[in-house]
Amino acid sequence: MSDRTSADATPPSALGDSIAQGWSDRDELPPADWGRRTSTRRTGTVWLFALMITAMAMAHSWLTDELTDQAFLAWATIFTAIAFQALPFLVFGVALSAMLTAFVPASVYRKFIPQNAGRAVPVAGASGAVLPGCECASVPIAGSLIKRGVAPAAALTFLLAAPSINPIVMIATAVAFAGQPEMVLARFVAGLLASVVIGWIWVRFGKADWLRLPSRSHTPGASRWQIFRESMLHDIMHAGGYLVVGALAAATLNVMVPREWLLAVAEAPIISVLVLALLAIVLSICSEADAFVAVSLTDFSPTAKLAFMVIGPIVDLKLIAMQAGVFGWRFVARFAPICLIVGLASTFLIGGLLL
Amino acid sequence: MNRIAQGLTLVLLGAAALTATVPTNLYLNWVKAGFGPFLVAAGAVTVILGVLVIVAELRGESGALDHSEATPEHAHGAQTDGVPTVDGARERDRAVAEEYGDGGHDHSRAPKVAWLLLLPVVAVFVIAPPALGSYTVESTGGSSGPPPEEQTSDGFKDALTEADAGETVSMAVQEFVMRAWIDEGREMAGRDIELTGFAVPDEEGEGWYLARLQMACCAADAVVNRVEIVDDGPTPEADTWWTVRGSWVEPEGELSEVSDHQFRVEEREEVTDPPDPYE
């Protein structure tokens, strides 16, 4: 019943759009027709949204009080929570990345970031420690860095380092693990190490055509604000859609996986580390909050909690979906496993040394 | 997804964020109160961006950008086509769509997945998800374990340390549970304590728990804190909010071995306008 509500509201629109798109995509129509078609399609779109808003208003008055299934409501709450918690970070990241695209000339990057990719990687890793933001913000920023001529490996290192070791995350970790400074240090070292090593691996083995990047060259005539607007729109549409996919998956697993399963494996030394790494991937908690969750998983060893905090910011469902939106699935299929393996290796190494 | 649809989607998404924060307090059901201003800002930016996109499209402004960008897109499309992959067909479809869709301008169309941005809108306006409550407490099997850090009792900074010996202390459920678990000095013993939370009737019959969810950032990371209530009154309905006054039932053995902390209630009062549901 309740599931149908949300389904009712969207698919008609998606269907309508896909039909309209299907026509326009495949038929190579004479250019003279474009104008007329577009305006018909515009009117159709406006009608579609009007219909949808009416449907939502009707559902609001008739249906909202009928939705009482507890499991569904808990799912909806977690989905909405993830989506709206990430929204400010997404908008911030997208705005910053649009600013980089529109207002910072490419020469600035060439000046600050070494041309040699191998040397650029540690610089990018260290700069991740400066910029506050979570993983939702760093995906579009990394995309625009690559477009501005920064070596992909360095941009990817930044993508991983920024959510792992930025100041807000470190403060949150220190607050959550009060009295355990070694945990904060371990997180910083392990996160930075993993980001830099992954960057170097990408320098050595990465191939340019794995990355699908929109090669954007803007018209000289377009004003900076137009470029800013277009870049922001493009990034929100790509990263935002996939953020919702990630939120859907994370909310579903969050509600469906019982916590007892986790506690059952908490005793086993290596398995428990792997289980918390997997949990970090599945839950997709924002890196600024994951320390509070890690500290609450009290039955697990410190190394397992470290794995939760190292893996979470570099691989999780929400992040995978967003990276797919910005860089393409061919990229994600290679990048996510590398991140997982290197992140785990780094966790075991640093956990063994410091914890 | 054409540009009008993109603009309208953004306007609706921003409107949803603003609706949940400005005229209502819905957002407190999902995220920490501190997120409020950021959500307002993000919502406003999203609405403005959406309006600007629609206005630009109606003026036909983007058309000027389209043609100049067609050339690099062709090169890009051809490159993708050359690589045979499992999803090669889909890639090619996309490349075709990019090249021919809407005048060869890749960026004027958004991928289909962007329609999903309407789901949070539907969630806010139709479902209006409530705060997590007794269902979550039951399904997570009660409280998490005690925190591991070696805190001494003078390390506590909560309502109890600030209150005078004789007066009633209003504590957060989270503070109470923390004390009950690790305060070896047992400072709570014999004190008059007040707790506020929602009722979770025991699944196996008698009794009920007073629970409150602790949230670091958003509802996805909510952690359950609950206290077993000892009183003579009838079991309240699930998810009703109560303020209870009474005292901690001091356990006999080791604190860390207690699974459910007990609270003997002397007075209880139903709360009609529940506060921020999380701590």
Verbal overview:
The complex is a heterodimer of chains A (355) and B (279). Chain A is mainly α and 355 residues long. Chain A has 2 domains: 1-21 and 40-57; 81-354, no CATH class. Chain A has 17 helices and no strands. Chain A has helices at 2-9, 11-26, 31-62, 70-103, 106-112, 117-127, 135-147, 152-165, 167-176, 181-205, 224-256, 259-265, 269-283, 290-296, 302-314, 317-327, 329-354. In chain A, α8 packs antiparallel against α10 (181-205) and α8 (152-165) packs across α15 (302-314). Chain A is flat. The model of chain A is unreliable at 1-16 and 18-27 (pLDDT under 50). Chain B has 279 residues and is an alpha/beta fold. Chain B folds into 2 domains: 3-127, no CATH class; 134-270, OB fold (Dihydrolipoamide Acetyltransferase, E2P), CATH 2.40.50.140. In chain B, 38% of the residues lie in helices and 16% in strands. Chain B has 8 helices and 6 strands, in the order αααααααβαβββββ. Chain B has helices at residues 3-21, 36-58, 62-82, 88-100, 118-127, 134-139, 159-162, 173-182; strands at residues 169-170, 193-201, 208-214, 223-230, 241-249, 262-270. A 5-stranded mixed β-barrel of chain B has the order 2-3-4-6-5. In chain B, α8 (173-182) links the parallel β1 and β2 (193-201). In chain B, α1 (3-21) packs antiparallel against α2 and α3 runs antiparallel to α4 (88-100). The longest helix of chain B has 23 residues, at 36-58. Residues 63-106 and 148-153 of chain B have low confidence and may be disordered. At the A-B interface, α1, α2, α3, α4 and α11 of A face α1, α2, α3, α4 and α5 of B.
